[in-house]
């Protein structure tokens, strides 16, 4: 997701250097109802949980997938790392 093998740490602020991951959340647009968006990764120990990127606490954490009121789906495209300038 970020190229950082230490994420998720499940600690508030872990996305401070990865703000681009919070596009299409209330973090970047106050008119957006979604505070977070779902990732593809599910919790191997609890099938009702999946990771989400949270724009309120700037962290990645497991949340109940039935919590549809605060999470949205982030439109994504795949971009080769060779096409990204750092």
Walkthrough of the structure:
- The chain has 86 residues and is mainly beta.
- The chain has no helices and four strands.
- A four-stranded mixed sheet has the order 3-2-1-4, with no helix packed on it.
- Strand 1 and strand 2 (46-54) form a beta hairpin.
- The chain is globular and about 35 Å long.
- The two termini are 15 Å apart.
- The model has no long low-confidence stretch (mean pLDDT 78).
Beta strand count: 4
Largest sheet report: 4 strands, mixed
Share of residues in strands: 25-35%
What sequence of helices (H) and strands (E) makes up the elements? EEEE
Shape: globular
Brief rundown of the structure:
Helix content is 0%, strand content 29%.
Topology:
Layout: E1 36-43, E2 46-54, E3 59-64, E4 71-72
Parallel strand pairs: 1-4
Antiparallel strand pairs: 1-2, 2-3
Descriptive keywords:
86 residues, mainly beta, 0% helix, 29% strand, globular
């Amino acid at each position: 997701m970020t190229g950082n093998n230490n994420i998720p740490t499940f600690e508030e602020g872990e996305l401070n250097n990865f703000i681009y991951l919070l596009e299409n959340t209330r973090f970047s647009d106050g008119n957006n109802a979604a505070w977070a968006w779902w990732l593809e990764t599910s919790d191997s120990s609890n099938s009702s949980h999946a990771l989400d990127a949270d724009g309120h606490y700037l962290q990645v954490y497991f949340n109940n997938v039935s919590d549809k009121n605060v999470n949205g789906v982030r439109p994504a495209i795949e971009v080769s790392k060779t096409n990204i300038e750092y």
